[in-house]
Amino acid sequence: MAADDDAQRDLEQKALRNVRGLVDKIEADDRQGNQKQLVAVTVIVALVAVLAAGFLLGRSKEPDKASKPAIEIPPPTKPVTK
To answer: Does 30 fall in a domain?
Structure first.
């Protein structure tokens, strides 16, 4: 009877170690997936920031039409005849 109990206990411990190993593997996979998501989000945010900065810098180089000085064209004069 004691041998059966020891064998049962050994099987239970082996099963618990297997379950713990699977849980550890799942947690490691989740961490790796989370890291990939974090890297992807960081890259996307950086890309958006670069594009926004480029847009703002490119836009500031173009002079605003309202701030351009007006060009005055004098009225035509009569030709001088001699």
So the answer is: yes
CA 38, CA 48: separation in Å to the nearest integer? 15
Overall number of domains in the chain: 1
DSSP 46-69: HHHHHHHHHHHHHHHHSPPGGGSP
Query: Pick the residue with more confidence: 78 or 53?
Result: 53
CA–CA gap between residue 49 and residue 53 (Å, rounded): 6
Question: Is residue 25 included in any domain, yes or no?
Answer: yes
Domain carrying residue 27: 2-62
User: Does the residue 44 lie in any domain?
Assistant: yes
Query: pLDDT per residue over 27-62, tens digit each?
Result: 999 999 999 999 999 999 999 999 999 998 887 655
